[in-house]
Write a structure and sequence with these properties.
single chain, mainly alpha, elongated
Length: about 60
């Protein structure tokens, strides 16, 4: 299972937007940055729960 197909592009977009916003090239509303950051955190927690649940299921057998 390759979960990085979504995480790495979102993280890259987040970092690029933050850098461009801080340098003044573009103006990104703070809510957009917060939404992307929260989505990444939620997705990471979701993945880790699924992986640990699958690991526990395999151990019980």
């Amino acid at each position: 299972m390759n979960y990085n197909k979504i995480r790495i592009p979102l993280l890259t977009v987040l970092v690029v937007m933050m850098i461009l916003d801080l340098t003044g090239v573009i103006h990104v509303p703070a809510i957009v940055i917060f939404i992307i950051a929260i989505a990444l955190l939620w997705y990471n927690i979701h993945i880790r729960r699924n992986v640990s649940n699958q690991h526990n299921k395999n151990k019980k057998k």
